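Lab meeting prep.
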Amino acid sequence: MQSIETGMLAVKYALDKKAVNLKLLDVRDLSTLTDYLLIATGRSDRQVQAIAENIKTELKHSHHVLPLAIEGMDKGRWVLLDYGDIMVHVFQQSVREFYDLEGLWSEAPEVELEQTEA
C-alpha cells in the first residue's frame, strides 16, 4: 500500500470517531523520516485515545498495516502512531496549539481532504 493511501485511510478512520480539524501534510520533499503527517484533534483524552485506537485497529485488521511505534496512548493528550511512511498525531486542542506542528511544517503542501469535520 502506498503512503498516500495509508494516509487517506487514517483520515477516514479518524473521522469515524469524530476527529476535527484534520490536516494531511505532504513532507516528502522536506523530511527523510516520513512521507506524510496526519494531524487531528479530539475534544477529550478519551476521544483522542478512541481516534488513535480506531486508526490502529482498522489499519491492522482491514489492511494488515501495523505501526512501528505508538506513544502517548495512556494519557490521551497527544498520541503518535508511527507507520514509517506516515505519522499520525492526534492531539487535544491545547496541546496541538502549544506544539504547533502546522507552523513547524508550514512549507509542506496540504493534501486536500473532502470532509474534515462532522
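Slide two material, second protein:
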Amino acid sequence: MKSLILLVCLAQLWGCHSAPHGPQLTYSQPNCDDPETEQAALAAVDYLNSHLQQGYKHVLNQIDKVKVWPRRPFGVIFELGVDTLESTCHVFDPTALANCTVRQVAEHAVEGDCDFRVLKQDGQFSVVFAKCDSSPGADSAEDVRKVCPQCPLLAQLNDTRVVHAVEAALAAFNVQNNGSYFQLVETSRAQLVPLPPSTRVEFAIAATDCVAKEVADPAKCNLLAEKQYGFCKATVTEKLGGEEVAVTCTVFQPQPAAPQPQPADPTMSVLVAVDPPGPAFPPAGPPAAAMVVGPMVVAARPGPPLHRTHYDLRHAFSGVASAESASGEAFHPGKAPGVTQPGVAGAVGPMVLPPCPGRVRHFKV
C-alpha cells in the first residue's frame, strides 16, 4: 500500500514538472479570401517586387494557406503561402503593378511559390520573412501545348541562337542611336520559333557615359551614376545570305542613386515609334521612348552562358537579412501551438477548417 501511494506521488510530481508553464501560444486560421489576409498577401508581393533585381514583376494569383499568430507585445503575424504569376513588366519598368499585364499560358507562363510572414502592427503591414521560388515547369509546357500547339516554349538563355539574337538586336539599336551607348544588363526571356526560323528575345539594357556613334572600345564605357535602364524586345529571323533584326527598346526615366522601391507614375511612360534611319535618339529627358529597327544584317558573335530559362525567385532575397529577429518573442511556431476558430478567441480544440486555398485571380499553371 505504501509503495502504491509512493508511485502515485511520484507520478503527480513528474506531471507537475512536465506540464507547460505560461500561456500557450495559439493561432487562428481565417478564410484565405478574407480582406485582411489579402491585404497581407498584397503587401508581401509588393515586398517581393521591391527586392527583384532581375526578371519580371510578379502579381498575386492565389493564397494557398494562412495562419495568424499573436505577436507579443503588440500586433499579429500572418503566416502565408502565396502563388504568384509573372507579368510582362520588367523590374526596371516603372509601370505600376496594377497596370502590368499577366503573362498568359500561351506565352509560357511562369508561376511563383512563396512563403511569407507578415507583421501587422498599428494598421501597417511589414514583411519579416520571405522565401520564394518559381518555375515554368513541365506542367506549364503541357498547358501551353494544349492552348496553342504551335506556340514556342521558353528557351535556354545560354543557347547560342539566343546569345546571338540579343547581341545582334543590341548592336542594331546602338547603330541607330545618336544618344548614349547602351550595354546589356541581362537577357530576360527567349523563345525559338520553328517557322519562320527565328529567335524572340527580351533583354534589359543600361546607358553608359559613351556616345553610341563615337564608341571605339565598348569595354571603356561605364554605366552612368544616375542609372538609366531600358527594356528591349527583338526578333531575329533567318534569311538567305543574312538575317532580319527587328528590335523595339523602351528607355525609362533615369533613376536616382538611391532608387525608391515604389515604381513611378505609370502615366509618365510614353512610347514613340521611329523608323530607321529616323531622327536622332531622344535625349534622357523624356521618361520613356521606343525605337524600332530592321531589317539589317548582323554578324554572329559568341556570348557568355546563362544556364536558365527564367529568373528564379529563389534568388530574390539572397543577402537580404530577415527582420524577424527584431520581433523578439513575436513568433515561435515551435512552441506546441493551439488552434483557435476564427472570431472565437482562446477557443482551443477541434475546428472546421475555413475555405483554403483561396480564389484564383488569373489562372492556374
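Talking points for slide two:
The chain has two domains: 22-141+310-340, 155-257+264-293.
The first helix runs from residue 2 to 18.
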